[in-house]
Amino acid sequence: MRTEFRRGASLAAICTALGACLAARGAEGPAPFAVRPKEMQPGQGGYSLPADLQIRSTAKAKEKLWVLAEKLEGTSLSLRVVTIALAGVEAVAMGDVAVEARVLEVPPRPEGFVLEVSPKGFLVLGRDEQSIQWGLLCLREAMDVGRRFIPSCFVRDWPDVAWRGVHCRLPSQAQFKEFGRFVDEVLLPCRVNFAVIEVNYRMQFRSRREIEDPLAQPAEFCAELTSLLASRGMRAIPEFKSIGHQSSAARNHALLAAHPELDETPGLKFGDARLERRSWCPRHPSLPGLLFPLWSEIIKAFGCTHFHIGMDRVFLLAEEECPRCRRSSAWEILAAAIVQYHAFLRGKDNTVLMWGDRLLDASAHGYSRDEGSEMGTASAIAYLPRDIIICDWHAAVRAEYPSIAHFQREGFKILACPGPDPESVRSVWSCAQRARTPLFLGYMATTGVEFAALAEALFGTRSAPEAARAADALRLAARLAWQGKE
Ligand SMILES: [Zn+2]
To answer: Does the pLDDT of residue 290 top 80, yes or no?
Structure first.
């Protein structure tokens, strides 16, 4: 079948040709795929869908047939599935395609797939069910259900990096519909495979009812978000900001509101220039008994295997005012706290993620006090378990981000995390590509705004400029993480 495809044409020309082919058949817009495949060749004609679609699918691939079922909703086309067994590969086939006899090179990478459409039928091959999801999505994007037609094409594609994600705030129950649109209309077409969701105190805790946030959502709602993401092959990772971020400049957040005795600097009054955000005292003996039950509840609700402990921009640590910490260095207190939180989470079979800025020496790397530490906490890095995944975030646009190479040299797996701005996305990606080793896991877009503002920018009419930029940055970051380049 592959001899039917023209060879030697440039990828751009092929994209245009396939786009024109689809446009001529009434498809919307010239670009057939939300993410540009690495290898793509259009063919002659295409496959006309019968009214009764009989699909042959391997058992695992069957889990992903919702991708097609959704597209057929509201049409007269019906879908029947016959299970087939193939060794070492997952497959979905339809029409007169002898899938069992085909020899096609499936990309030897997780999530890679092959899609072939010809006048005889279509075939999606992959090594795992997630590969099949992306292959079927590609098929769905090319499919014109109104005309019951899929133009012939051959696509072989795989992600440039294994981790492709987004960081966002926990939505409210009232925003569930928008979150569903966010997942299906933004994250799915962009081939995202994980979401870090900032929870903090926004879950209704049962173990410590006095720790209460007015914006808290039921645990069942968090579980619902997780299963929605999981059904799309996306991992949900809750984030709980640790040590710092325990207040705004004007009021305490839930933990310190209920337990002011945990405050590292109770004498520091709101309105003081030194006070941006309060910290909990990592050495307070009551802290583990209060904190870990909350984390256990979050882990249970999200059913997670990865937990983000925050740890960005901690500015109050080893303060003179604190009788437990004042004789110690900030770095040793930080290291001991991270090791303790890591041990608890390992006990819950969770891998730890954290922001990397406190582990960087701001002056040595030329970073601002937000992106690196001016308190000597960078020395803590020597004492941390190497299975922690570092989220190296940088909002500023720079020529170089030395920390991306630094963390990998130190033996950490890392995610490069640009700020919510397309220019930051481009500059961080370009540097990350140059500094890449096998420890480079991938890319995580940050949004920096409440979910409501992001949803308004994505689906509404009155978006705030920063939310609109975040939405653009998110799409660009995801595209780069799959395509490897623009
Ligand atoms: Zn203290």
So the answer is: yes
